[in-house]
Amino acid sequence: MTRETERRLATEHMALTLVGAGMQRMGARVLSAFLFTEKESLTAGDLAEELGVSAGSVSAAVRMVVQMGVVERVYVEGSRREHFRMLDNAWTTLYSRQHSVVDAVLGAVEAGVEAVGPGRAHDRLEYMRDFYTFLVNESPVLVERFERQRARDKRRGEPRP
To answer: What's the CA gap between 103 and 109, in Å, rounded?
Structure first.
């Protein structure tokens, strides 16, 4: 098996894994293409060619990964086409953006805690509130620790698992 075939299989495997985690199929394929490319940026045409689909079919998927905050539009001198690239800190950005969803859930849970009296529902809601509050408070610390550890490992030239 050639290296290119292995790369394509790994790209599709990643996409199927993302679909299994709840992502839309074309969005997962586009995100996987960005993950596995060696190019600095990709156009809709590049993605269509890589994925074997029409350029029009990737536009909504590109918009989705841009809205997720893992891919951004970039200017490429001399090109009339829109170019996109994956952010270097895509995962910490995505992880941090999820706080708005968690904040909304926390607001609803807090209203629930206040709306019910003592009992099982109150205990469940209180536990949920406390758990998500803990996650929100600890997440920035974890991201910071990750970035420090990653920088330290890169300086040392240590392989990452």
So the answer is: 10
Predicted TM-score (pTM) of this structure? 0.75
- What does the longest C-alpha to C-alpha distance in the chain come to? 66
Confidence of residue 159 (pLDDT cuts 50, 70, 90): low
Residues 6 or more apart from 27 whose CB is under 8 A from it? 18, 60, 61, 64, 65
Query: Which tokens hold the place of 115?
Result: 């709306």
CA distance 20 to 17: 5
User: What gap in Å lies between CA 18 and CA 29, rounded to an integer?
Assistant: 9
Distances 81 to 14, 35, 59 between C-alpha atoms, Å:
27, 21, 13
* Six-digit token string for 11: 């790209």
